[in-house]
Amino acid sequence: MPKKLDEMRNSTWRLFLTAQIQVIEQIQERLSAANLPPLEWYDVLWALKDTPEQRLRLSELAEQVLLSRSNLTRLLDRLEKQKLLRREPCLTDRRGTFAVLTEAGAAMQKKMWAIYSQGIAEYFGDQLSDEEVKVMQQALKKILGVIAIHH
Fold first, then answer.
1. What pLDDT band is residue 151 in, cutting at 50, 70 and 90?
2. Which helix (H) or strand (E) holds 57?
3. How far apart are CA 115 and CA 74, in angstroms?
4. Quick check: 66 pLDDT over 80?
5. What are the beta bridge partners of residue 101?
6. Distance in angstroms (rounded) separating the CA atoms of residues 62 and 151
7. Is the CB of residue 56 less than 8 Å from the CB of residue 71?
8. Which of 52, 38, 56, 51 is CA-nearest to residue 108?
9. Residue 96 pLDDT exceeds 90
């Protein structure tokens, strides 16, 4: 049975959420100022770039970017319209479709990463000591481990 939420943990939770939202907003503003697409586009492009064949089934992609299938479909429509990815049918499963990263998509991911990584460094990495990073990493892994067990 979970313990009752105490004030320190509750305020830490609120700080965690606030910091995450504000850092993402700052990075999004930088992307926008550089005339680059929204951060959600980056997540899809990176997920595709991170695979050996630079393609994923739509169901796998939805899991990796934490979007519902309908939201992912709309996002993929926008990315495809910009020629950053293309859809290909799965030859072994008629119902399956792959999202495939294009050269333009890989180039866009690289441009976006230059801005994104600067923001992560400035607003997150540079603010923490190596020891704080280790403690934070251990704590987040512990949280994700509990969620994996309960899922």
1. low
2. strand 55-57
3. 25
4. no
5. 85
6. 17
7. no
8. 38
9. no
3 pLDDT band, cuts 50/70/90, is confident
The Cα 23–Cα 116 span in angstroms is 10
Rounded Cα distance between 51 and 33, Å, is 29
In 3D space, the residue among 5, 1, 25 whose CA is nearest the CA of residue 14 turns out to be 5
> Model pTM?
0.86
CA 88 – CA 98 distance, rounded (Å): 5
Measure the CA–CA gap between 61 and 106, rounded to whole angstroms: 16
Distance (Å, rounded) from C-alpha 61 to C-alpha 127?
32
Q: Are 105 and 84 in contact (CB under 8 A)?
A: yes
Cα dihedral 123→127→132→134 (10° resolution): 50
DSSP 95-129: T-EEEEE-HHHHHHHHHHHHHHHHHHHHHTGGGS-
